[in-house]
Design brief:
2 domains; 189 residues; single chain; mainly alpha; disordered N terminus; 7% strand; 4 strands; globular; 33% helix
Length: 189
């Protein structure tokens, strides 16, 4: 039978672990909150009913494919291109795979050229990623919903971008790391 001192030490160790876990959870929650002075997005397309894709999302085929072709247009690259260096891309963001550097390099952990405090894609955090806010919400917090002059992306396309970012926004194919059923998908509207 444990002594009262041993029992107290075990209880103190459990309490310390619980407090450390709670502190980590609180720190994680703070990371997902908008920065001070940042307007939260609103009027967002719900992706709650689109089944999640945990694996097999290929950046080149799926995500870049949205940039280059959707709704019978050239997609995002109609405006977001340097046309091989002959012009400035809309919003300072080049999404044309024919340009150098690639869209992937122009997106991942890159601060917005126009909006201070925003990053185009924050791997594992679609709710902090300007790309997701801009394609998902009528009022993304800054600027306008994209695409600007075409019909909005479908809920399935928006969900694909969300899932790719949530899986870490890999350059290759998502590997299907399970994120858990408690994750909120999209913005709560």
């Amino acid at each position: 039978m444990p002594t009262p001192i041993a029992s107290h030490r075990r209880h103190a160790a459990s309490l310390s672990l619980a407090l450390a876990t709670l502190g980590s959870a609180a720190a994680g929650m703070a990371l997902s909150l908008p920065a001070a002075g940042v307007t939260p997005p609103s009027g967002c397309t719900s992706i709650q009913n689109v089944p999640p894709m945990y694996s097999g999302i290929q950046f080149g085929a799926a995500i870049e494919g949205i940039f280059t072709h959707f709704n019978d247009t050239n997609g995002c690259t109609d405006c977001h291109t340097t046309t091989m260096g002959s012009q400035l891309p809309a919003g300072g963001l080049d999404l044309d795979p024919q340009d150098d550097p690639s869209p992937y390099v122009n997106l991942i952990n890159v601060p917005s050229a126009l909006y201070s405090g925003y990053t185009y894609v924050v791997p594992n955090h679609p709710e902090q990623s300007l790309l997701f806010m801009k394609v998902a919400c009528d009022n993304p917090g800054v600027g306008s919903r994209m695409p600007l002059t075409y019909a909005a992306l479908t809920a399935e396309q928006i969900a694909l971008i969300y899932d790719w970012i949530a899986e870490g926004a890999p350059a290759g194919t998502t590997d299907g790391i399970f994120r858990g059923t408690f994750d909120i998908r999209g913005f709560d509207q």
